Each structure stands twice: as structure tokens, then as C-alpha cells.
Amino acid sequence: VAVPPRSVPEAADDWARTVFGAPRHLSTLVDRVDVRDEEIERLYTEVIRRDIREERQFTTARRTTSPRVDPSTVDPFTISVEALRTASEYVATCLGCGGSGTAACGGCRGAGRVDCPTCRGRGEILRQYKKSSRWIKCTECRGKQTQQCDGCRGKGTVNCQGCEGGGCQSAWLTYGQTATPYVAVLPRSPILSAHRQLAEPRPLRKEEVAMFALAMTAEAAGPLVEVPATTRTFARSNQPRLDPRLERISHQQYFKLAVLRRDATYTMCGAQGQLVFSGHKMTVAPTPLAVAPIQRRLWLWGGASVGIAGGLGMLMGSFLGKAAYFEGPNRMLALLWLGASLFGALSVGALLREAGPRFRWARLAPLERAFGAVGLAGAALIAIVGLATRPRLGQVQTALASGDANRARLVVEALEETQGQSKDVLEAKDEALMAAVPSATGDERLHLLDQVASHGGERAKGATDSARKERLDRVRQLLDAKKPAEALAKFEQWFSAWKDEPELREMRGLIHDAVYATCQDDPCKLQAAQQAVQANPSTARASRLDDAQRRLVDVLSFSEVLGESTVSRLQRLKAMASVAAKVTSIAGEDAKLADKAKGATERSSAERAKVPVLGNEEGVAAELLGPLTAKASGIASVILDGTEAYLALDGQRRCRGLYAVGPKGNRALRSTLWSGDRLLSQTVGHPTTVKKASTSTGVVRWQEGAIPVVARWKDGELMELRVGAATP
Ligand SMILES: [Zn+2]
Ligand SMILES: [Zn+2]
Ligand SMILES: [Zn+2]
Asked: What is the mean pLDDT of residues 4-16?
């Protein structure tokens, strides 16, 4: 039994370092080592083979002779190539032509003619001119399409190449040589996969088997002969079968190797592996059995690591939060998760290594135990940190007590996320919001108060009151700044749900008092005074309303002024009508005032209708009809709701005539606002109608007092109206 140069454990650990995923101290897992030294015999054989074949060549001989040697009787190992040729040469019939000496011509395939190369067998060629082209007869073959084959000069046959036309060949026997290597290694052992050169079909050098002890060696340039009987027997039974005539052994090499072999069995991850060490260097055979437990552990390790990371991730996820409060805890939890997963994975590797029917705690290294402990501690810390950083109601009070309103709101936000809007959470939220009120300004302040009020908690009443006071103050500030319109708008927005409270009534009254002060006209004042009284009546407001009403009654009563110009009188009538219209829209229940306004409106239009356009100056016409446009000297025009009216003016710019026609198109006077009747009545200054023609189409002429009128009708519609001295 040979003694290995290093121990099995050393060799095992050295090998483990070269295998991915193998444990560092594989040797500690080895259960058993068996001494399995072997004797391996290896025979290398090279076989050469000589095959007999016939060769042929052209000859000048013209008479055949019969073959002289039967190739199946030739022993190629007893005769040289030259001697065999000399002994076997004879004259044979040519194989290529069977003795005829001719062969079909390759150029024309025996036809004697080939396609004309110029026209490619068409007989025509395309001739190109400057601007055109046309087909003409081929100049080479003159339209015959073919020409004589050059290869055979038209005969269709050529001399046979094999015999150059003679019909005979010289034939003789010869042989070639091939060499084939064979190798036989016995017994078939796992060590062969560790020493692959043994199975390669080639002779080996001594140094290629230096890892083994050589028990016996023999080599010969032919079959091994001078060897012990046992070796000869091994060689006989393990060399290839030979063809006794054509094959010979040209080289044989024999090794008997004393192989040092140790088989180690190790257990890992509940599976058994076997390592076969062999040779002086204790090389491990890379068999599937050697690496199976290592691969099994790698798979399980990867799966377990993913499982640990996933499980811890779920634990961590139950504590994570979206609110800003969780920013710090989230980061800490993520770090703990990373650490616990990492150390957990490391310790699982060690546990898997020792896993099996009999788990071996004692074999875990101190560092591996530490990894496991750290991993477990990390997992526990995730739970501890997660629970410890949960937001609590008490934190709100603590933050508020130390004056940190922002912190309080952060905690409340987190509480809303974790506990929902429960009563306690909302109370804490109200407390935090109220704490923020003193430092807030403007709309932000109101927003805070409104939020608290909307929760309906203990502080809702106080918040509601504060918000109301705040808003009333703002309205008051706007009034002080002489902005009653804005004050009214804000008041309506904030207090639209009218509460019949004295304070609000008075505020509304004050706003309308302020509006009254800024009013430019009497209807505005009337409205403001009315609304102020409506909001909160007082003696002062009542007398102000009285004043406004009285003033309006005055304005709505028309009185003649002696010597007043017609234009000025018409303008006063129009102004009265416009005040009356405003009053009508705001008079409401004030029946007396409404009647007055109605009367004023009627009076205004009646008085205006009495003033004729004819005979008055153009200012009066403009006041009655609207702004005039000068058309030519003595002609002015005005558009009355589509109807075109032309006024004829005399030297004193007085209107002497009026001509009216409908809008462009069919020119009918269809306006209802300025009907033909109204236009005529206004022109002459008293109510009248346009006379109809006796037929639906025709012209009517008559006199309104002393004024001539012409009306033209067509299909029952008024087309033209001419009053007084109208010329166009
Ligand atoms: Zn031939
Ligand atoms: Zn041709
Ligand atoms: Zn030919």
C-alpha cells in the first residue's frame, strides 16, 4: 500500500476551494475514507493496413494481354510497390472508351455544332442607332443561329483521354498504407475521469503517468513479444482483430500502473457525496456523485434566502407608512430588513450544510452562530422598531406641550393613516389644528378653523365662533376701507345661509348703509335704503328710505318749463323714462312708487309722440329718431330697426320731408318697433295710419292735414313711404 503525499482532508479542502459553492472546510464533513488502491493496465496498439488496388495509364501498345496477378492473392507485406508493378503489369482495354478510342465531344455534346456566341442562338442582334435601335440579322452566323464546334471540328467526337485514341491502357497493381491507433484501459475506474490522458488513443510518455507507480512497462515497434506471459495474454485479449493478409501491428505500448486511490464519503445537506482521489497528487475525479450535495445545497440556499427576504419584507411592510412622519422609521426598517436578510442568508448556508438526519450543532463555527444570532436579532428588531415607532395619541399632546405644532400635525397625519379618522384621532387633529391657528394668517387661518368646525368635535363650537368673528372682522375692515361692494360679496359668500341673528342683521344693514353712501343716482339710493331697512330697520334708515322715495316721486313728475327748447324738453322726458324703468325693476312691493313709474313712462312716450319730425330742426329729429348721419347737403339719414329713413332739410336745417324704405333685400318695411304707422305718426306729430292701396300692389297718395303722403305697396307689404317734401 502506497502512502499518499498529503492527507485526504487536505486534498478534499484543496479541491473544495476550486468548486463554486463548496463549503470551505469540506474535510469536516467526510464520514469515511476507504483505501481503494488499484492496478490499472493500459495497452496502446497501432495497426497499419495495406489495401491492393489497380492503377492505369495511357500506352502506345495496341494489343491487349490478360491480367497476370489476382489481387486477392497478393500479400502486401511481402512485396514492394515496385516489384508488385513489375510482376502485375499488362495491357488492358481502355476503361473510358471500351476500346473505341473516341469519346463524345464535351463542347457540343456530340452534335458537332454549337449556338452562335454573338447572337446566343437567336440569329438576330440588336443594333443601336443614335435615337433608336432595331433587330438585324446576326453578322457572325448570318441568321443560321449555330456554328461549327471548334472542339471536334464538327465531327461530334474527340479522342478518348484515357488512351489518347489508342483504345488500350497499361494496368498494374499497387497498394497504399493507413495507420489506426487503439487503446484499451482496464478496469474501467472513476480515476479515468481524473486522468484523461489514459483513455486517449496515443502512446504515452513516462512523465504522463508519473502520478502513478509503474509496476510494469513494455514497448515494441510491432507486437509485444518479449514480455511475461501474463502481459502477452492481456495484450492478445485487448488488441483489435486483424485481417491476417492486409493488417499488421506496427507499435504496441503496455503499462501496468499501481494507482493510489482513496474514496471519501461525505454528507452534506442531507445527501451523500463521494470523492475519488487518485495518483500522487490525489486528484479528484469530477463525477456527478462528487458534486451532487454541493449543487443541492446551492439550490436550497438560494430558495431559502429569497424566502427569508420575502418573509422579513412582509413583516417590515406591515410597519411602513406613507405619511411624512414615517420617513425616519421607514429608512431604519429598510436597513434592518437588509441586514437581517443578509445575515439570515449567511446562517442558512451553514445550517443547510449540516442539515440531515442527525443535525450537528457542534459543527457550526462560532462566526456562523454569530451570523444566525445577528439575523434573528435583526428580525426581532424589525418588529420592535416597527411597534415602537407606531404613532400614538400621546405624542400629539407631548408635541403641543413643547410648542411644536408641526410635529403634532405630522403625528396626526400618521395617526389618520394607521387608525383612520376615529373620534380620538379627530380630537387630536383638532387640537393640533387649533394650535396652528395663532401663527396662521388670512385664508389659511380661516381654513384651519373651518376644518376643526367641520369635524364636529369638542372644539367645533369654539372654532365656529372664532371663524365667524374673523369673517365679520374682515367684512368690517372692507367697509372701513370704503369697499362696500367687496364687503357685500364676502358677506354673501360667508353668511349666505342667513342666520337671523341681531349681529349679522346689523352687519348687513351697515353694508347697505355704506352702499347707499356711494350711490350715484336715486334708484341706487332707493334700493340701498330699501335693503338696509330690510336687513335691520331703524329710524335713521326709515327716514333715509322716505327721502329716497320722495326724491324719486319728484323726479318722476314731469313739469313744463316756460321757454324751454324742444330738444331740452325731449331730453328731460327721456331721462324721466329711464329713471322710471330702473324704479320699476326695484320698486318691489312699493305700489305707490311703481304706479308713479308707470305713469311717468306713459307720459314720456305720449309727450314725445306729440312732437312732429316735420317742421322741427334736425336736433329734434335726432332726439326723436336717433343720431343722424349727413348724406349730402340737405339730406340726413337714420336707420330705424333696419328701416332706412332719409330726411330732407331746408336752409335752416329744418326737416321738410321724410322718405323711408325697408332694408336691402326686398325693401319691405317689416319692423314692428318702427312700423310704418309709428313712423308716419311721429313724422306728422299725431296718431295716424298708412292708407292701404285698393289692390295689393299699387301707390296711394293722400294728405295728412296739409302734408302730402305717398305710400307704395307691393303684394300687401309697404315698400316706400314719402312724407312732405322728400326728394330722393
Ligand atoms: Zn480510351
Ligand atoms: Zn449568330
Ligand atoms: Zn464538338
From this structure: 84
